[in-house]
Every structure is written in structure tokens, then in C-alpha cells.
Amino acid sequence: MVISLTKISIIIPVYNTSEYLDECLESVLNQKFQDIEIICVNDGSTDNSLEILQKYPVKIINQTNQGLSASRNNALKEASGEYILFLDSDDYISENALEEIYEIMESKDLDLLIFKIIEFDAKTREKSKYSYFEMDLLKSHVNGNVFNYSDVKELLFRISVTAPGKLYRRDLIGDMKFNEGLIFEDNPFFIELFLKAKRVYFDDNYYYFRRVHNDSITQSNFEKFPDVIPIYNIINDIVIRSGEYDTVKHKLFNRQCRDIYLRFSQVPDEMKQDFFLKIQDDFKSKKERYESDGTWELANKRSRKIFSNALKFNYYRDFESSINEYDIKRKNKKFKRKNKKTDKKIPKSINRLKKLFKH
Question: Which segments constitute the Glycosyltransferase 2-like domain (predicted)?
Fold first, then answer.
């Protein structure tokens, strides 16, 4: 068992981010709250990231390039803090962030603190809010109270899963690890932790600033996008082990179909057929279970369409066209419904005006 020597361990995986590394590290080192350790994992950088790290009072772990998950896992082995904060090396935290989030954790005796992330453009530095990190549904549901999974079961797959944007009690993580060799690794890590956490709090403040640029992993690792399939199989196993599968099976199905199709639609055309065949194989293996355990009846129409059409067609273009056509029809229906409501309101408004002029 690791003896806690510091309050917060800050884990920063580093790979070829020399251009942004100073800003990242200084945002931590300039905090008023100093009962911290900073663990930087140099993941085989080929630029001068290591030289920059050596200028600062941080613990450096050097490794051959193993990826983000392995970097975080290796840092967790060394972390002695009572709490864990994950920070990407091209991002930064706000002034006094550590003092404020530590005070919240302590005063509310939390296992997990979730806070908001704001994005900014790497070139212009213009800030923008992203609904995924705003978590308005969660905010309105918990209404400033401490909660756990049992209070927000219907929102399990509507909460930001990113490893940053949270402060974790070290004991909550325990021996858990990020799945190595896969991207989208934050998903199962968060789901498993959230199902375990007894005291969680959502803080409606921006403590984390996320840089958006063309070198983002999700924009450059298209060949890894099919990882979304095994990632959801891992999540499925986690939910089954937790005993909550029957409660959230349809929501898991909806999220799985949504995310798998999203990643499929984002890869270049030359990669789509192979991706499509992997989707088919995965869906075929689950079809019987979904039809027999009630998932299919509870799932939404779009998810069922994605699932059934993946099994219906042999070529990715036919599959993709069918979903695009479905989405267009759905948008048109929504537009027509909205227009009907507007048309109904117009006569009422005219009648009100007539009455006003009469008087």
C-alpha cells in the first residue's frame, strides 16, 4: 500500500508537446496550493520535451513510446498523493484551481469531484464552451448536492468521461488501470470508478483549459478508431459485474451504437469497409442477447436502425447512406413539427393584436 506523503499527485503524460509544456507546468507550479507532487511521463518524445521537463522540480519517468494509458498507469504506480489529478501536457489549469478543488474534496468528504472543462483554440486562444463538458443535465439533476450513481442512473452515459476535469480520491482508484493499447480508454475507467464512488460532487466552475488543435489524438489516430468496439465490450463487462446491467442496458446500447457509428463516420473512406466489417462481427455476436433480454424493445429508433442496418448490408456505402437518409428524414420531421407549432401560434398572436386595437 502506498503511504500518502502529499495531498495531490498531478499526473502529466508528455509526448512531443514542447511548444505547450512550459504553460502547462507553470500553471501547476504557480498555484498557491503547494502540497503536491508532479509526475511527468516522457513517453518517448522525439522533440525537446525532456529538456524542458528537466528545468522544473518535477518527477520524470522516461519510457519508450507506449501510449497514453501506459503513461498514466506507470505514473499511478509512483503516485503518493491522497488525491489524483490528470493533466494533459498541452493543457493548463486555472489560477488557484488546486486550492479550490482540494477544499471541496475535503469539506464534502468526496471520492470524486467532477468539474467543467473549457476549450480554447491553439492558434487564436479563443475560448469556447462544449456541451459535453458543460453537463447541464447533471447540474440540474443533482442541484448542488453530493450524489452517487444510484441518484443519477439515467445519466450514467451522459456525463463527461475524460480523465482530466476530475479530482479522484486515490483509494477509489486502487489498483485500477487504464486499458493499454486502446484509445477511448477514459470511457471504461470512468464508468467503473463512477459505479464504485459513494460520494460525488459536480462543481459548476472551469478549472481546466483544454487546447484544441489539429494534432489532437482523436483527429490523427483514425486507424485506432475501431478501438471503440472493444472499449464498449469492456464497458459492457464492467456494467454486468456491477449488477446494474438490467437497469441501464438500453442506455448502454444507445450510447454504444451512437459512438460506434460516430467514429465510423469520421474515418477516411478507404478505412471504412474494414471498420464496417468489424462492426458487423461485433453486432452479430450480440444480436441474440439484445433480442432476448429486452434491450431491443427499450432502445431508441436510431440505435436500432444503426444496429439492424449494419447487419443488413454487405458494403459500407450502403450502410452509411441508409443512416444518413434516416437522419435527414428525422431532421425534416422535427422541422415540420416545429413549423406546425409556429403556424398555430401565429393566428393566436394576430387575434391578440386585433383585440388590442379594438380597445
Answer: 9-142
